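Troubleshooting entry. Yesterday's outputs looked truncated, so today I'm pasting the complete records for two proteins to confirm everything comes through intact. If either block looks cut off, that's the bug. Protein one:
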Amino acid sequence: MPLSRAGLFHLLVVYLVWSSTYLAFKLGLIHGFEPFWMGATRFIPASLLLLGFAVWQRFRVRLTWAEVRMLALSGLMLWLGGNGLILIATQYVPSGYVALMISTAPIWTATLEGLLDRKRPPVLLMLGLLIGLLGILALNVPKLGEGTPTNLLAFALLLISPLMWASGTIYTQRQSPRLEPVVISAYQQLFGGLGFLVLSPLLGEQWHTPTLLGWAANLYLIIFGSLIAYTSYIFAVRLLPLSLVTTYAYVNPVIALLLGWAFLQEPLGVWTWVGAALVLLGVGLVFRSRMRPVVQTTP
């Protein structure tokens, strides 16, 4: 069965745009934003703009209680759990390192799908998981060798974040209500943004006034990361196999590493390249295991 051309187009948008968001995260945090305050000022405006567009297009925006529960839970998993932990970790480690750690999302996705479907994991999947985990270990050798609390915290958060994102993505795909992708995107970001807004003062964040560059980075995240790329992600999840959609995580780290090196002078050491190669090889094997066609035998 041929793949959807529209789905592939939306996946290409995700490939290109989300690679640059890690740099925007870092710039926003460097130039005055606190992590959860940045999330609130990004996702709430983005969601309202998307809802306004949905109303203009006469899409259904009134939700049932079941849809509210589903979109609130998935929005919190994706944005508060997945994205929020990234924002915290980005304060302590280079943006390229963050992108590489997040590239394990396809491994978590494939594992969770296998558990939910009650299927024995293929050998290729297990090999990919092992190689991916070795890549994470290699990537973290310099950081864990230093043993500082902030590096250990970042390491832990960047292990949990892709698991939360994978869980939210699978839940969105399997429980998706009969709503337009723009509406799903809007409400998930709205609930995620409200979660950021509630937790920001509880965590003691100071709402300082960011610099112009900080606001520019956040505006970039609103327009390109939320309005365009995340809506494309919802389209891609609806139109393509999930194991193919999650390959965005293979492309993002490479571009993110180069952007961090070019704009922030983030170092690219030997362990970075070794870890990157192993992680990408691992997720590539997972991808192959999930996309391998089933060979049917005649009775």
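Protein two, checking that the full record survives here as well:
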Amino acid sequence: MYYNNISAVSYATEYALSPNNKFVYMKPYGKIGGDCASFLSQCLLAGGSRMQYSDLPWFYQSISSSPYYKCPINWSVASSLYWFLMNNSTRSNYGPKGKLLNDISELTLGDLIFFQNSNKKIFHGSIVTSFDGEGTPLISQHTYNGLNVHIRSEYFKDTIYYVRIFI
């Protein structure tokens, strides 16, 4: 099994501006939270990642005939999704895995970018869905819904993590 980055990007570009109604859109609460990690998890799922229910759980489950759902924090919170990807890469579990890249120039379609603030907290994530004429990655994301946009200057807080995805 391999990560189909083209399928992940196709999903991202289809649902970046108009979220998939098969998943609950996690609206921000004040200045916190949002749907960025859930959107990335959906993209990873579309790219062939299998849900994982034990050890390090990563899954989404609708509760039939209701607006409710179940998912672990690894699915729905940017810092936890980053942690999950890094830790899952050291195990033989199902689900997506991540490898930290050294530089923005190493990114390819379907890779993820995580942003850390000055408090050392990863607060947002996005997926690389295209490149501009200069070779700069363009991202798609939720919470601040965007399709093939440049990285916003307000995301340059402290650290940006570039993550290659594999299964």
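Both blocks look complete. Sanity check on protein two: The helical segments are 5-15, 36-46, 73-76, 78-88.
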